[in-house]
Amino acid sequence: MDKGKAKDLKEKSGGFVKEFKEFIAQGNVMDLAIGVIIGGAFGKIVSSLVDNILMPLIGVILGGLDFSELAIKVGEANIKYGIFIQNVIDFLIVALCLFVMMKALNKFKKKEESKEEAPADSPEVTALKEIRDLLAKKK
């Protein structure tokens, strides 16, 4: 391989690596990665809450029913619909928590935006305010 082609190849690969580093360093990618990690941990907490606290309480209310044992045998297959019910409850709790968090976040953002967006006076209003101030000084 001649030196010119090797240099071109090195420059191209160096540019690719540089672009990749910039992409990874962007805030959106890092925010997404952090969100995925926190979301996974949050999912485990909610699953534990449902499996170990809520479902046993619901089972007691329903007369000692253990949802994890609910199943139907169809031929050789064992259809565990109780675990499916637990997973649906997991999903609903996660969705509810995310809804409440997003609602609170949106409310906070609206307050911040309303503080930042003070309506600019039109030139006519600015002129009228200056006239008012000059008249107030003459009195």
Structure write-up:
Helix content is 79%, strand content 4%. It has 139 residues and is mainly alpha-helical. Helix 2 crosses helix 3. The model has no long low-confidence stretch (mean pLDDT 82).
Question: Order of strands across the biggest sheet?
Answer: 1-2
Radius of gyration: 31 Å
The span between the termini is 90 Å
What is the CATH fold-level name?
Non-ribosomal Peptide Synthetase Peptidyl Carrier Protein, Chain A
User: What structural category do the secondary elements indicate?
Assistant: mainly alpha
* Biggest pleated sheet: 2 strands, antiparallel
CATH superfamily: Large-conductance mechanosensitive channel, MscL, domain 1
Summed up:
The protein has 139 residues and is mainly α. It contains 4 helices and 2 strands. A two-stranded antiparallel sheet has the order 1-2.
Give structural attributes.
139 residues; mainly alpha; Non-ribosomal Peptide Synthetase Peptidyl Carrier Protein, Chain A; flat
Summarize the helices and strands and which ones pair or pack.
Elements: H1 3-25, H2 27-61, E1 72-74, E2 77-79, H3 81-116, H4 123-138
Helix pairs in contact: 2-3
